[in-house]
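User: My collaborator sent over this chain with a note saying "see what the structure looks like." That's all I know about it. Can you take a look?
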Amino acid sequence: MTTYSYRDDPAVPDFDDGAPVAVMDAQCAICSWGARMIHRLDRAGTTRICPIQSPLGMALLRHYGLDPLDPASWLFLDAGQAHKDFDAVIHAGRRFGGLGLLTQTLRLIPGHLRDWLYRRLARNRYRLFGRADLCALPDPALQRRILR
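Assistant: Without extra context I'll predict from the sequence alone. Here is the result:
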Protein backbone atom coordinates (compact mmCIF):
# COMPACT_ATOMS: atom_id res chain seq x y z
CA MET A 1 0.00 0.00 0.00
CA THR A 2 1.18 3.48 -0.80
CA THR A 3 2.11 5.68 2.14
CA TYR A 4 -0.50 8.36 2.84
CA SER A 5 -2.57 7.20 -0.17
CA TYR A 6 -5.76 8.45 1.49
CA ARG A 7 -4.52 12.04 1.14
CA ASP A 8 -5.09 11.81 -2.61
CA ASP A 9 -8.58 10.36 -2.21
CA PRO A 10 -11.19 13.15 -2.44
CA ALA A 11 -13.69 10.93 -0.61
CA VAL A 12 -11.53 10.93 2.55
CA PRO A 13 -12.01 14.09 4.62
CA ASP A 14 -8.85 15.93 5.62
CA PHE A 15 -7.68 15.09 9.12
CA ASP A 16 -4.56 15.52 11.20
CA ASP A 17 -2.61 12.36 10.43
CA GLY A 18 0.52 13.39 12.34
CA ALA A 19 -0.19 10.73 14.97
CA PRO A 20 -1.49 7.15 14.76
CA VAL A 21 -5.22 6.60 14.30
CA ALA A 22 -7.11 3.44 15.28
CA VAL A 23 -10.28 3.03 13.21
CA MET A 24 -12.70 0.77 15.07
CA ASP A 25 -16.35 -0.15 15.58
CA ALA A 26 -17.79 2.19 18.22
CA GLN A 27 -20.65 -0.22 18.93
CA CYS A 28 -18.56 -3.30 19.69
CA ALA A 29 -17.73 -4.21 23.28
CA ILE A 30 -14.34 -5.68 22.40
CA CYS A 31 -13.48 -2.57 20.38
CA SER A 32 -14.44 -0.40 23.35
CA TRP A 33 -12.12 -2.54 25.48
CA GLY A 34 -9.44 -2.09 22.80
CA ALA A 35 -9.87 1.69 22.92
CA ARG A 36 -9.38 1.63 26.70
CA MET A 37 -6.25 -0.51 26.22
CA ILE A 38 -4.87 1.94 23.66
CA HIS A 39 -5.50 4.73 26.15
CA ARG A 40 -3.60 2.85 28.87
CA LEU A 41 -0.73 1.52 26.75
CA ASP A 42 -0.04 4.60 24.61
CA ARG A 43 2.10 6.46 27.13
CA ALA A 44 2.76 9.26 24.66
CA GLY A 45 -1.00 9.88 24.54
CA THR A 46 -0.97 10.58 20.82
CA THR A 47 -2.98 7.73 19.27
CA ARG A 48 -6.47 8.79 18.33
CA ILE A 49 -9.53 6.64 17.88
CA CYS A 50 -11.85 7.05 14.91
CA PRO A 51 -15.24 5.30 15.05
CA ILE A 52 -16.09 3.52 11.82
CA GLN A 53 -19.54 5.03 12.14
CA SER A 54 -18.09 8.53 11.58
CA PRO A 55 -17.77 10.04 8.09
CA LEU A 56 -13.96 9.82 8.35
CA GLY A 57 -14.06 6.21 9.57
CA MET A 58 -16.39 5.14 6.76
CA ALA A 59 -14.27 6.94 4.15
CA LEU A 60 -11.05 5.33 5.41
CA LEU A 61 -12.61 1.86 5.33
CA ARG A 62 -13.86 2.42 1.78
CA HIS A 63 -10.45 3.75 0.73
CA TYR A 64 -8.84 0.50 1.85
CA GLY A 65 -11.49 -1.65 0.14
CA LEU A 66 -13.42 -2.50 3.30
CA ASP A 67 -17.18 -2.33 3.70
CA PRO A 68 -18.17 0.22 6.37
CA LEU A 69 -21.60 -1.42 6.64
CA ASP A 70 -19.97 -4.76 7.45
CA PRO A 71 -17.06 -3.60 9.58
CA ALA A 72 -15.12 -6.79 10.15
CA SER A 73 -11.75 -5.06 10.01
CA TRP A 74 -9.76 -2.93 12.36
CA LEU A 75 -7.41 -0.34 10.86
CA PHE A 76 -4.39 1.21 12.48
CA LEU A 77 -2.87 4.08 10.52
CA ASP A 78 0.67 4.95 11.49
CA ALA A 79 2.99 7.22 9.51
CA GLY A 80 0.65 6.99 6.54
CA GLN A 81 0.69 3.19 6.44
CA ALA A 82 -2.45 1.14 7.02
CA HIS A 83 -2.34 -2.05 9.07
CA LYS A 84 -5.46 -4.15 9.46
CA ASP A 85 -6.90 -6.92 11.60
CA PHE A 86 -4.42 -8.81 13.81
CA ASP A 87 -1.53 -7.21 11.90
CA ALA A 88 -2.87 -3.88 13.18
CA VAL A 89 -3.00 -5.23 16.73
CA ILE A 90 0.58 -6.51 16.42
CA HIS A 91 1.82 -3.21 14.97
CA ALA A 92 0.04 -1.11 17.62
CA GLY A 93 1.37 -3.31 20.43
CA ARG A 94 4.91 -3.02 19.14
CA ARG A 95 4.54 0.75 18.84
CA PHE A 96 3.21 1.13 22.40
CA GLY A 97 5.84 -1.16 23.95
CA GLY A 98 5.60 -2.39 27.53
CA LEU A 99 2.64 -4.71 28.01
CA GLY A 100 1.65 -3.97 24.41
CA LEU A 101 4.51 -6.20 23.34
CA LEU A 102 2.41 -9.18 24.44
CA THR A 103 0.59 -8.79 21.12
CA GLN A 104 3.76 -10.04 19.42
CA THR A 105 2.80 -13.57 20.48
CA LEU A 106 0.19 -13.43 17.71
CA ARG A 107 3.10 -13.73 15.26
CA LEU A 108 3.47 -17.35 16.39
CA ILE A 109 0.22 -18.14 14.57
CA PRO A 110 0.73 -18.63 10.80
CA GLY A 111 -0.61 -15.66 8.80
CA HIS A 112 -3.43 -17.49 7.01
CA LEU A 113 -4.64 -19.01 10.30
CA ARG A 114 -4.32 -15.65 12.08
CA ASP A 115 -6.41 -13.98 9.33
CA TRP A 116 -9.03 -16.74 9.51
CA LEU A 117 -9.23 -16.44 13.31
CA TYR A 118 -9.57 -12.66 13.11
CA ARG A 119 -12.39 -12.91 10.56
CA ARG A 120 -14.24 -15.46 12.74
CA LEU A 121 -13.97 -13.27 15.83
CA ALA A 122 -14.89 -10.11 13.92
CA ARG A 123 -17.96 -11.63 12.26
CA ASN A 124 -19.24 -12.91 15.62
CA ARG A 125 -18.10 -10.02 17.81
CA TYR A 126 -21.55 -8.84 18.87
CA ARG A 127 -22.71 -12.35 19.72
CA LEU A 128 -19.51 -13.24 21.59
CA PHE A 129 -18.73 -9.94 23.32
CA GLY A 130 -21.94 -7.89 23.11
CA ARG A 131 -22.41 -4.26 22.24
CA ALA A 132 -21.08 -1.13 23.88
CA ASP A 133 -20.92 2.54 23.06
CA LEU A 134 -17.31 3.63 22.66
CA CYS A 135 -18.33 7.25 22.42
CA ALA A 136 -20.13 7.06 25.78
CA LEU A 137 -17.09 5.90 27.76
CA PRO A 138 -16.86 8.20 30.77
CA ASP A 139 -13.09 8.87 30.82
CA PRO A 140 -12.61 12.49 29.63
CA ALA A 141 -8.99 11.85 28.59
CA LEU A 142 -10.12 8.96 26.42
CA GLN A 143 -12.93 11.08 24.99
CA ARG A 144 -10.36 13.65 23.80
CA ARG A 145 -8.72 10.92 21.66
CA ILE A 146 -11.90 10.21 19.70
CA LEU A 147 -12.10 11.77 16.23
CA ARG A 148 -15.68 12.74 15.55
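A starting point for your reply to your collaborator: The mean pLDDT is 89.
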